[in-house]
Amino acid sequence: MMLDTLGERYGKLPSEVLEFGSTFDLWVFDVAMGYRNLLDKRSKDKSEGRTMNSQEASPELIKKLEQYRVSKNNN
Which pTM value belongs to this model? Predict the structure, then answer.
């Protein structure tokens, strides 16, 4: 699924994604999918009459960004 999604987003074949992709592309994919899932959850919650505070997602996003920054600095 990841190769297909990245290929679709960038207009590349899966073999091109494998050959030229980097860990940054994987990080962007992970964050984008997480954000898309968050929006889907919010939409579903609103349709069911529940609301979600934007601060509820912040700790998870901040943790991912900190992990990326630490891993980037270690390389």
Answer: 0.51
